[in-house]
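assembly run, all chains below
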Amino acid sequence: MRKNAAQRLILRGGRVVDPSQNLDEAADIVIDDGHIAAVGPEAAAKTSKGIVIDLHGLIVTPGLIDMHVHLREPGFEYKETIRTGSEAACAGGFTAVASMANTDPVNDNRSVTEFILRKAAEAGLVRVHPVAAVTAGMKGESLTEFWDLKRGGAVALSDDGRPVKNSAVMRRALEYAASLKMTVISHCEDPDLSGDGVMNESFVSTDLGLPGIPAAAEEIMVARDILLARYTDTPVHIAHVSTAGSVELIREAKKKGVKVTAETAPHYFTLTQEVLKDYDTNAKVNPPLRGPKDVEAVKEGLRDGTIDVIASDHAPHAVTDKEVEFEYAANGIVGLETSLGLSLRLVAEGVLTLSQLVAKMSVVPAVILGIPGGTLRPGSPADLTVIDTNLTWRVDPTVFRSRGRNTPFAGWELTGKTVLTVMGGRITYRDPSRWE
Ligand code: DOR
Ligand code: ZN
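ok done. output:
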């Protein structure tokens, strides 16, 4: 069942949820030669020969796309490699990911971009779209060669992990990127305000005796980037939105027609800073987990369309990076294998419809990054995800495909899981408990 790129796959009877075509109905999908050949209630009836997979009772969506992950290679292979990250991605239902530039060396030149693509092709499990750095060495000073990086395969630009502190540099980045139809993804943080903070500044941080990062450290940069995007009439994408104030700023900017898009990560709509009460470094992340009002505002932002995308900000770290005093622990939460399960809680709670969730986890990221995918239209690459929305499972980091085990969700019971992932017409993942 594995190496079957040229073979016909016939997926029978699943509920096809494809917001790109306004589709939500029981239908068959025929895959030929790595592409979608037909979608429709009777599509399989007209086709003979091929591998038939019965999907009754399951959901089929365009392959999920995670536009914000850290794959750590080159340089931090002890945390994750492109191969282990790819394995985690397809197990989580993803057929494409965008990989951030904070590797070592930084992805600030074409040879690193091409190295990432070569490694991803060798793994062959997920489309990896490199995000190149905005500035050389992510130092915030001089712009990288956007055009050359684009020719090398970079799809977007970001110094994620660090802000582009200098507003003039950010302005030039936005202008230059827009001329090349590339999106700048902004890590919004005023580093002077966040200072040596390690969690959200609040009564809880006072209680725990930990230095705080105020919400304003994020919001000031969100406001700045909105102003720059408005002034230059260029697009900007705000990464990992975590505060009520950021949601409000983005909402108002969108009303005024500013070309701003935004993402949040599952931990920001699922957890508050309360989980830090036992100093769990697995919940230490940047931006930090915030308060209940922020969580509610992020959910409302997702509901009303202010927040366009759910991305995991998959940030694997080794045990040695995390099992240290809270102040010294690395920031980051692994997300590829829990993102869908946590996001489906929004559907159960009535915050999003399933179709809206699929839009935020597949259709819209493809549009923002200008990459293939996000649709099951005939003729498009056969990237799709099959989900059992009734399957209840327990998060067990010891069985993650990711090399990172750093999750605050260990032991959580989630409902809804990927059971089959198809990328380019090839099965890249199938749930072992379902298919032998
Ligand atoms: O928590 C985080 N981890 N936030 C970032 O901005 C960077 C990321 C990482 O690379 O570990
Ligand atoms: Zn990140």
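The chain has 13 helices and 18 strands.

The CA atoms of residues 67 and 224 lie 23 Å apart.

not gonna interpret more than that til we talk
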